[in-house]
């Protein structure tokens, strides 16, 4: 549903924001549990490149159909991240990592699978980069299990909780640092001493998703031209721009 898509893109936007990427250059990101590529769309719109991994071939088929800009890999992240060391400038994951806590097969050990995931992710990330994993933990034991395996693999960092006092808007982001540890970002909507300042930031944050930072409206002519331009820069085949680009077609009956 469009509501799900909206929440998904808000969480992707927040995850990328928490990555604190350099502004001056495009980065290569890993999207763990990329599904149909909704989070990847946001990464592409921000001018970055991405590779997505997912265990579901059906979801990746949808991503292909949607012609996402990232490269896609069918794989179980519980077996590890099969990329060479230091290749990624960051990693995001939306609503996926909690699945590693389930033992779907007799042979599955959640702590082992989590450790395999985190230790190979740690290796695949460039020093000084971050991984931001949004997840839906079932309970505090699950949270502890996930965090413990991340720390065992060498990550520092911790959980950033947005809107902790709201049952509906509460979101968990495991924010992990590779190498030099930085201070953990503040969760949105958390009460703190400088209430006034934070309240202002809190309200801005909510409206930001509406005007989407002055970006072109999705599917508009400008948006299409920008997307085509990005694809050209990536060396992909793109149809020539004409005066018909982005025109509205008549409905079919």
TrEMBL record:
GO terms for biological process: rRNA (guanine-N7)-methylation. Residues 223-253 are annotated as: Disordered. Its main location: cytoplasm. Residues 176-250 form the 18S rRNA (guanine(1575)-N(7))-methyltransferase Bud23 C-terminal domain. Residues 30-106 form the Methyltransferase type domain. Pfam families: Methyltransf_11 (PF08241), WBS_methylT (PF12589). It is found in: Cytoplasm; Nucleus. It catalyses: a guanosine in 18S rRNA + S-adenosyl-L-methionine = an N(7)-methylguanosine in 18S rRNA + S-adenosyl-L-homocysteine. It comes from the Eukaryota. SUPFAM superfamilies: S-adenosyl-L-methionine-dependent methyltransferases. Residues 235-244 have a biased composition (Basic and acidic residues). Keywords: Cytoplasm, Methyltransferase, Nucleus, S-adenosyl-L-methionine, Transferase. GO terms for cellular component: cytoplasm; nucleolus. GO terms for molecular function: rRNA (guanine) methyltransferase activity. S-adenosyl-L-methionine-dependent methyltransferase that specifically methylates the N(7) position of a guanine in 18S rRNA. Requires the methyltransferase adapter protein TRM112 for full rRNA methyltransferase activity. Involved in the pre-rRNA processing steps leading to small-subunit rRNA production independently of its RNA-modifying catalytic activity. Important for biogenesis end export of the 40S ribosomal subunit independent on its methyltransferase activity. Locus-specific steroid receptor coactivator. Heterodimer with TRMT112; this heterodimerization is necessary for the metabolic stability and activity of the catalytic subunit BUD23. Interacts with GRIP1. Belongs to the class I-like SAM-binding methyltransferase superfamily. BUD23/WBSCR22 family. This is 18S rRNA (guanine-N(7))-methyltransferase. It comes from Struthio camelus australis.
């Amino acid at each position: 549903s469009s509501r799900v898509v909206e929440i998904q893109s808000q969480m992707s936007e927040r995850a990328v924001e928490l990555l604190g990427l350099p502004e001056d250059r495009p980065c290569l990101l890993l999207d763990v549990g990329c599904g149909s590529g909704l989070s990847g769309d946001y990464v592409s719109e921000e001018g970055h490149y991405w590779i997505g991994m997912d265990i579901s071939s059906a979801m990746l088929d949808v991503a292909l159909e949607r012609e996402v800009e990232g490269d896609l890999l069918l794989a179980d992240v519980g077996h590890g991240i099969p990329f060479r060391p230091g290749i990624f400038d960051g990693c995001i994951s939306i609503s996926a990592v909690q699945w590693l806590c389930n033992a779907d097969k007799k042979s599955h050990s959640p702590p082992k699978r989590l450790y395999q995931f985190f230790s190979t992710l740690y290796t695949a990330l460039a020093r000084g980069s971050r991984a931001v994993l949004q997840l839906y933990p079932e309970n505090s034991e699950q949270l502890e299990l996930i965090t413990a395996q991340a720390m065992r693999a060498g990550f520092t960092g911790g959980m950033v909780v947005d809107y902790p006092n709201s049952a509906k808007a509460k979101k968990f982001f495991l924010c992990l640092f590779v190498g030099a540890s930085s201070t953990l970002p503040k969760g949105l909507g958390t009460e703190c001493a400088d209430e006034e300042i934070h309240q202002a930031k809190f309200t801005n944050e909510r409206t930001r998703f509406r005007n989407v930072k002055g970006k072109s409206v999705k599917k508009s002519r400008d948006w299409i031209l920008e997307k085509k331009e990005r694809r050209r820069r990536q060396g992909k085949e793109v149809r020539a721009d004409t005066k018909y680009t982005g025109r509205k077609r008549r409905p079919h009956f």
